[in-house]
Structures are given as structure tokens and as C-alpha cells.
């Protein structure tokens, strides 16, 4: 029987406001530092391979992690970021599409103190929903302009997580968990929410028009309103979001990077909103033997998904929006 290790959280406040920021959820030594080391090694490997293949002019050995990442991405191009993400591209993949599936990340996904918080919000039968990303955002000044617009290294426009998944997710009690790996501040692009927006239903999301200042799929300002709350969070903290809470990020205008993971959890047995991606049981009080504890099995699930996607070709639709609603005109 697992011993509760996490903080007791204010469930009522989460239900009222649609979000809850909790400091000190991850254990710095046990959960967080191994992830940082894993990414330092990964960056080393990516740079060595790209350099050996003649794709980049330097190995940037003398630079600290974030500057080194920025230098590498600048030379290698936006596509090089995919090797760091903990997911596949949404619509299509080949057998060679890289992704990062390491033991430290898996350990963080299953962190007992984190899952104790999740359990207080969605109950004891917990599935890891596969909508998950790492966002290491170097300062905008360190990257070419196209990096700042969207993608995982740039600013995120206003959306609800329910809106970016397929409609099958509508009744799923999907919980977003945003983890701060570096301190998140207003200067480096912390997350912002519209408090209580989760009570207003699912808003229409519009694809960004070519040449507009919006970034990808977004909720138009007419529907969102103008009030929002920035949520700075210290390294190791977690932000819990209801699936209909409107949120966005600020721009990364500081000297240092903004590094976060966004993960999602839900009760076992409900649709995930991305049925072609793999989910797994993180915690089950009813059947502990169904919990996945081996990171290599998790990594294999994603590799099998990649093979299926490579064989099946690009997906048609990954969300419900096509820009035809009048508010998107
Ligand atoms: O970190 C970001 O910029 C966006 C995160 C997000 O949209 C999420 O956690 O659902
Ligand atoms: Fe989101």
C-alpha cells in the first residue's frame, strides 16, 4: 500500500476557480534533477550526432544548457526540437521520427507526491493521458523569429485543453498538470489563466489565419474577455488545470529559459481524446498489478505507435475545428 507523500491540496478551490497552483510537488533530488541530467545528456547526443553528420558547424561545448540548446536549434532548425519532446507529432510520423522516452521522465510522470495530488482531484484509478509535452523555451532573443511563434519553444495562445483534443474527450475528467522545471516568472513566460472560465462551457477555437498575430488554434478575444491571472511558479511546483480552463503563456523575454512539462491524467476507462496515442495505468488502488512501472515498456508503447502512424500515413483530423464558425471570420 502506497504511503501518501504529497501535499494535501485545496480541492474545493480547484473546483471553484478551475485551477490550483501548488508549490513543492516534485521532489527536487528524486524527481527533478534526474530529468535535467537526462536532458543534458540528450542534448549532448543530439549535438554530437548532428555534428558528425555535418549538419551543424559546432558542438557549442563551452555553453551552459539553455544557451547551448538555443545555439543548436538556431543552426539545426525548428525541426530539431522534436527529439526532445515526450510525444510524437500529432498528425504524422515516420520510423525515424525522434522523441525522448527516458527513465527520469517516466519516473517524474509517476512521482508519488504528484500522483497523490492527482488522486485528490480525480480519484484513485489514474490513467496517464498521452497528451503531453516538454516545453524548453529559450529567451526569444536567442532564437530566430520563427521559433517565437507557436510550437513548443514559443508562446502559447489562449485555449482550453478540451478544445485541442477530439470530441470524445468531452465527458472525460481530464486533468492538466503543468510542472515547473525552472522557476516560471512573468518575464520568462509563465502560464496565465482566466479564473472560473471552466464554468462557461467549451469555447469556439479558431485556427490562426496566415499573417495574423495569433498563434495556432486559439479562442478569439470576444469569447475570452480581457481579464486573466499570470501564475508564476517555483521550480518543482505544479499547476493543475480543469480541461475547460482557458490558459495561455506569456512571452519568454528574460535571460533564462522557461522549462516546463505539461502532462495529463484522467480516470481509467474514459476516452483520451487522442485514441491513436498510448496511455497507461499510473495508479490503481483496485488493481495495483495493472500499474505500469517499467519505463522500457512505456517507451515501447510509443515506438509501436510510431510504427503504426508511419504505416497508416497522415491523420485527417486531430481536433474538431475548421475555422468555419462566424466568430473565426
Ligand atoms: O506551457 C505552455 O506554454 C502551454 C501549456 C499548456 O497549454 C498546457 O499545459 O496545457
Ligand atoms: Fe493547454
Structure described in brief:
Helices cover 27% and strands 16% of the residues.
Bound molecules: 2-oxoglutaric acid, fe (ii) ion
**Which sequence of strands runs across the widest sheet?**
1-6-3-8-2-9
Structural class: alpha+beta
Mean of residue pLDDT values: 96
Q: Kindly report how far apart the N and C termini lie.
A: 55 Å
Helix content: 25-40%
Shape: globular
Radius of gyration: 19 Å
Largest sheet: 6 strands, antiparallel
- Strand % is 15-25%
Give the low-pLDDT segments: none
User: How many separate helices?
Assistant: 8
How many strands appear in the DSSP assignment?
9
Order of helices and strands: HEHHHHEHEEHEEEEEH
Question: How would you explain this protein's 3D organization?
Answer:
With 329 residues, this protein is an alpha+beta fold. 27% of the residues lie in helices and 16% in strands. The protein is built from eight helices and nine strands. The strands form two sheets. It has a six-stranded antiparallel beta sheet with strand order 1-6-3-8-2-9, with helices on one face. A three-stranded antiparallel beta sheet has the order 5-4-7, with no helix packed on it. The longest helix is centred in the first third of the chain and has 25 residues. The chain is globular. The termini are far apart. The mean pLDDT is 96. 2-oxoglutaric acid binds next to strand 3, strand 7 and strand 8.
